[in-house]
Amino acid sequence: MSTLLEIKSSVLRQVQVCPSFRRRTEEEPGSASADPQEPATGAWKPGDGVEFFTQMRLILKKEEGRRSLPCPEVLLRSSSPAPTEPVDPNRGLRALTQEEVEMLYEEALYTVLYRAGTMGPDQVDDQEALLSYLQQVFGTSPEEHAEAIERVKKAKAPTYALKVSVMRAKNLLAKDPNGFSDPYCMLGILSASGTPREPGPHKEQRFSFRKGAKRGSPQPAKSIQVTEVKSSTLNPVWKEHFVFEIEDVSTDQLHLDIWDHDDDVSLVEACRKLNEVIGLKGMGRYFKQIVKSARANGKAGPTEDHTDDFLGCLNIPIWEVPVAGEDRWFKLEPRSSASRVQGDCQLVLKLITTQRDTGMSQRGRSGFLSYLLLLSRLLQFEHRAEEVEAPSGPRGSWVSSRHHQTCTLDYGYLLGLLEDMQAHWEEAASLPQEQEESLADSFSAFSEFALRLLRQLRDYFPATNSTAIHRLELLLRCLDKLQLFQPSFEVCPFETELNTDITAALKRGNREWYDRLLNAKSPREQPGPQRLAGLVELVDAVYEDLQSCYSIYASLFHSIIKIDFFTLTFRQLERLVAEEVWVLTEDLSSKMTLEVASRLFELYLSLADIQRFWSSILGRDSRSLALVGIHAPFLPAVKLWLQVLRDQAKWRLQGAVDVDTLEPMENSKHSSSVATASLCFSHIQELWTCLAWPDPVQAQGLGTQLSQDLCEAALFYTELLRKKVDTQPRASGEAVSEPLCVVLNNVELLRRAAGQALRGLAWPEGAAGLTGGLPRALLNCTQALDEDLQREACTVTAHLTSKMVGDIRKYVQHISLSPDSIQNDEAVAPLMKYLDEKLALLNALLEKENLNRVLEALWELLLQAILQALGTNLDVSADFYSRFHFTLEALVTFFHADGQGLPLENLRDGSYKRLEEELRLHKCSTRECIEQYYLDKLKQRSLEHNRCGRLSVRCYYEAAEQRLVVEVLHAADLLPLDANGLSDPFVIVELGPPHFFPLVHSQRTQVKSRTLHPVYDELFYFSVPAEVCRRRGACVLFTVMDHDWLSTNDFAGEAALGLGSIGGIVRPQVGGSTRTGQPITLHLRRPRAQVRSALRMLEGRTNREAQEFVKRLRELEKFMEADP
């Protein structure tokens, strides 16, 4: 009984039996109340830092989950059964009277007993089994069942008809000269008497409607139908439908011929069509046809020469047609063994009844209505037996969807039926008006039910349930299929586009969901301050819902029914939230308290998350949102909250230090308080990032204040640590203090944590100039705090190493007092052992950076101790200085530790150079020290080019005369040493070292009065051998003095020039003038420290040569001003 026509007309109707939702007021489903949630943590108490930062952590944890777009895999957490959709047992067809039930029972038995056609593999062929099943469905007794069967058997058999749809053919033979054919079909029903087959030796022949009148046989078909002629094609498409009455199902057969239609053609027309010929075979056929036409003098020949050509036939017994009908391709057959045919023909066959001897038929009840009532009865029986299963394929029936609201069925099954209908829709015959109206009403009823479900999308299809989401996908696909049928109805079930109704349902559902949420979380009847906590929960719920819309629902709605559900929902909910917040913030502006400020701050963070969520999606512009500018009314609350944050941070740090024992935590080298401080600073930085204040000018003010507060808190913490360590009991004789090491580690960790937090407080560009990637104010604050904490670390380091000063001096003194008879390594061993023990302890207690700080401090202490030892031990043996030189190198190796300790460049800098120089000089003789004094002058470079002035000279050596010529030319930019702002300069020229030139005396220029740019042009001769001038350290020293008549002369500067590089010394002169060489400009300077170190070495010596050299230099120093 399930035919294509019946599928079309009955399946969709069974979803609901109710008027169209467009023609009546929608019935409101029961609103499911929102799930109760636990109340948020109460507002923090002023002064309670722990509670305040606990609340802050909860906020940050919530913000952390919103930093990126959600993934569907995260949201679809449950595969449990989907929520039950609303069902109503009263929906469906009306209840039947007993008389109607009996007539329906009779109708069902009649159908089984007089069924015709073959059964498919998935259909029940056992008549007794079918009759027994019907007895169970209708609940009749065996006696009643037997009586009903007898009555039906006595009834008249039904009249059958065959519905034939000739769809198309393919790969037909080309019968026309152009390589094509003009095919058409002739079809009809052949009775048993109309198919005689004459025996004999002739070739086997099949029946054909067009075998020709010459055979004299009568037309055997009781009725013949003809399709249209399809011109010039081998793959014709007809899609024509016919109905034939059947006398005897067991013997009648359907016969179909396909012919090539040929019109009479003249020679002229045949010639005109010659250019249409395709292939040599067609060409030959055309020539043959043209010849025939020419012989007839351009007129048509005998009729038999121009009859239609046979293309193939089909003979299909009626009893072979399946009960459910069939749509298949049949291979064309020849009419005789000599015929040549090819190709296939597609037919859709369905065997139906036109007259039935049943009570319902006699009362004028349509077969369509009987079909609906019977299938409804069958499904009710299956549901009651709890054995209902969806039919195995789309050939079942859409009538099962009628019970979708009384007992939910799988949307996948309903979708399969719709897809099957879509596949056959265009090829099927038009529906009777009754069935089309029924189908239209079914569409309307199902769409109404689906729209009611979509209005409560979040209740029936939660985003966290993968099973429910799959059901939603199938439901949307069903709705998408419904839209495809809309243009095919003369009686249209949709007054508007279905997409428009879906959009309206979604919008209404969004509003209803929001109103329920608002009433549950933050009723408008409550006072403003009491509504705040609930409003925060509401905004959070909206944010989570928008995440679900974007990750789960949006892709389904967009890909299936082309609706941008996310944009629709976001715009609507964002606008509703903005309206609620604007009103509430205006009401609370005059009621600002600490608790209100805290709630408003949290509320703003949630609103900012919604804005960022929209902006994070590519191509979204947040400037059109209703939340734009929402930050303005929150500014007073944010300022107040940040002030409280400053105080609470100090309270939190105070509490952390109070309980800190200054002992290292497990697996770390710092104590608990700095971990708390670092966490607080990190939370502050993260909160600022979440705040992301949009106004640049306001953000600059807020960020500057927050950075200053953070710096103040960091310094407050170091002060607390200092006080804490001062109160710690100290063990007597303890050289390394563990609490001090912990404090030093804490300060270093705090420096890094605070610096990182401050760098994270950058505000939007444009508020202030950027320096190094940070706003200038923030950079200054960061650098100032880093310098303060570096100084604090140095202070703690000095305090830590100060306990070791006495021991270090003791061991250095031990080295200085060790007799020359013991080896150097034995003398140094106690110091090295002491350092090894202490540094091993420090290494275990300190972080790497702090260990380096302590190593640098100890290194400086050691150098100063050795320098002090050298200063107190004068006129000692060279072995004394050699021992300390050995000690110095051993300490360098120890502190470098094969690259694990201090870098060599750091170790060999500063005091080390001074000490190393003194040790080297102490090992030198008096003359070597004097030579070093002059070498240092030659190495010295002036750092005061513009202060002491310049001196121009020319020097060369006259080998023939064996004399050195020094020409003082002029000076410039000398120091003004007189009260009149000028000077009276003169230049002293001398050679050194003195023991190189024992017979040479110094010479001087004339005094040039009242000038800073004197011109001398004076020539001086020094008779010295060239070999002496080439010695290392040999030089000419120029000393510029200011002549004073009433007091001692003033020192104005000096410069030295090595003799080894002047002309005549480097290479001998060859003839010519003796006055050669270019002038040399020397920058005047004052003696530096490295020059005076050699002088100090000589001061400690008692020999005559050293004392005379020192005495002469002391006389010169009397004329010098103090070093700047």
UniProtKB/TrEMBL annotation:
Domain MHD1: 601-721
Molecular function as annotated in GO: SNARE binding
Boundaries of every C2 domain copy: 141-300, 947-1077
Database matches in SUPFAM superfamilies: C2 domain (Calcium/lipid-binding domain, CaLB)
Domain MHD2: 825-933
Any one Pfam family match given in the protein's UniProt record, by short name: MUN
UniProt keyword terms in alphabetical order: Cytoplasm, Endosome, Exocytosis
Chief place of localization: cytoplasm
Family assignment from sequence similarity: Belongs to the unc-13 family.
GO biological process terms on file: exocytosis; positive regulation of neurotransmitter secretion; regulation of dense core granule exocytosis
Subcellular location, record wording: Cytoplasm; Late endosome; Recycling endosome
Residue ranges, annotated region (Disordered): 20-48, 195-225
CC terms in the record's Gene Ontology section: late endosome membrane; plasma membrane; presynapse; recycling endosome membrane; secretory vesicle; trans-Golgi network membrane
Name recorded for this polypeptide: BAI1-associated protein 3
Domain of life: Eukaryota
Keyword Cytoplasm: yes
